[in-house]
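Run log // design_07
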């Protein structure tokens, strides 16, 4: 985890076509120190969580926030 610099985060919704783990890698490549994570509940499973955790560990970024998407239809 980065402790000697300010957190500058790539917001989760900036790259809507990217998966959460792809967003983490993109943020790292662009020089951000954190990333927002988008959570679409129907597509989020243990594997997704593990891939996001792996991306955060590999890049050294932290997850600044977790944005949950809930869509209701009538």
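design_07 sequence
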């Amino acid at each position: 985890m980065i402790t000697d610099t300010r957190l500058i985060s790539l917001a989760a919704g900036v790259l809507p076509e990217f998966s959460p783990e792809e967003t983490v890698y993109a943020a790292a490549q662009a020089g951000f120190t954190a990333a927002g994570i988008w959570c679409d509940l129907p597509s989020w499973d243990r594997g997704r969580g593990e891939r996001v955790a792996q991306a955060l560990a590999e890049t050294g970024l932290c997850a600044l926030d977790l944005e949950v998407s809930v869509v209701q239809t009538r």
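Residues 46-59 form the longest helix (14 residues).
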